[in-house]
Amino acid sequence: MTTVTNSRMATRAELFARAEALVPVLAERAAKCEELRRCPDETLADFHSTGLFRMLQPKRFGGSELDYGDIVELGAVTARGCGSSGWVFGNLAVHHWMLAIWPAEAQHEVWDADPDALIGSAFAFPCGRATKVDGGYRVRGRWPFSSGIDPSTWVMVGAMVDPPEGQTAPEARMFLVPVKDYKVIDNWFVAGLRGTGSKDVAIDDVFVPAHRTLGVNEAKGGPNPGTVLNPNPSYQLPLIATFAYTLTGVALGIAQGAIDRFAQETRQKVAKYSGARIAELTTVQLRVAEAAASVDAGMLLMLRNCAEALRTAKAGETPTIEQRTRYRRDGAFAGRLAARAVDLIFECSGGAGLYDTHPIQRSFRDIHACTSHIALVFDIAGTTYGKVMLGLPCDNPLL
């Protein structure tokens, strides 16, 4: 793809047009992405040159500062071409949004040195431990599933802070660590989302200064440590409750890509055994209709909640526990709708869809890899919401 100049602080319309132009390019590279088990360098270069990586970065640091809901849609656009590439794009782009809520000193430390810096993440909090010391914390642990970690020069990890003497409950905190202080373990050999490079990250008793940490309780919605630099209400959404929407957007994009490709190739396709035109089969028509409606419903649900969360932030209010658990519920439910859509299309694809050269088998593997992410497992998000609605305590302390 041709490099786009003057991509800094691109408009929403420009970014959407550039993302659409990338769809066939990403589709052409999808097999290579899987073979590499990470995003190809040329794809990373495209995400940089188009300004897509910096869509949520604050304007004061040269980003476009779009609304959070835009990453749901842009993640879906890129995933129509390649699920793994869309997943990496969404994960790395959303970390600019996340860093914007950290203390100002952390933002300057990263972006003053390199405004294009990529930041990975690994938020399996129980996998890490931290001890409070003078000036900061000492952090240790090994975390799985750090998507897009290979080109990243920083990583955000979650860890449980050892409680002070006399207390029993540890605190959940996030820590920002430079590449020199962590090790990437190449163990990403998987069935789906192969190109995401979601490898393990290990940290061995490293000091992290206080300004490069953020407590989960500081990011549940409303003003936060980054508000002094970035007052835009988009940076005051509940972090954990809405983080999954980046992933859900990718799932919906994978599903939409499968629908689009199937429709295009089926219009003139004839069944090998019967000679019937497949497009004229009522069962196929119904499956295509249900798949498309499922994707549309999932996207509308995501955008409705993003708009509601933004209105809440603009009003200076903190989202209630009912809202936060509902946001998490809906993210997982939309992912379930996306998986249902792909399954419907896969059922219509016949034996041809089993070949490694056919994109639908990749969509099938990728969508089920997406919905295995803990944030998109409906049984978990659904029971959390159900408990709150039924008057029981929330079972997810991160919310």
The tally of domains stands at 3
CATH class group of the largest domain: Mainly Alpha
- Class based on secondary structure composition and strand pairing: alpha+beta
Q: Based on CA inertia axes, which overall geometry fits? A: globular
Report the count of strand segments: 8
What integer is the average pLDDT? 94
Main β sheet profile:
8 strands, mixed
Supply the CATH superfamily name of the largest domain. Answer: Butyryl-CoA Dehydrogenase, subunit A, domain 3
Give unreliable regions as ranges.
1-7
Count helical runs: 10
Attribute tags:
single chain, Butyryl-CoA Dehydrogenase, subunit A, domain 2, Butyryl-CoA Dehydrogenase, subunit A, domain 3, disordered N terminus
Task: Report on this structure.
By secondary structure, the protein is α+β, with helices and mostly antiparallel strands. The chain folds into 3 domains: 12-111, Orthogonal Bundle (Butyryl-Coa Dehydrogenase, subunit A, domain 1), CATH 1.10.540; 119-218, Butyryl-CoA Dehydrogenase, subunit A, domain 2, CATH 2.40.110; 237-389, Butyryl-CoA Dehydrogenase, subunit A, domain 3. The protein contains 10 helices and 8 strands. The protein has helices at 12-36, 41-49, 69-81, 83-99, 104-111, 239-266, 282-314, 321-348, 359-370, 378-389; strands at 119-122, 128-133, 136-146, 154-161, 171-178, 183-185, 199-209, 213-215. Strands 1, 2, 3, 4, 5, 6, 7 and 8 form an 8-stranded mixed beta sheet that branches. Helix 1 packs across helix 3, helix 4 (83-99) runs antiparallel to helix 6 and helix 6 packs parallel to helix 8 (321-348). The longest helix is centred in the last third of the chain and has 33 residues, at 282-314. The protein is globular, with a radius of gyration of 21 Å. Residues 1-7 have low confidence and may be disordered.
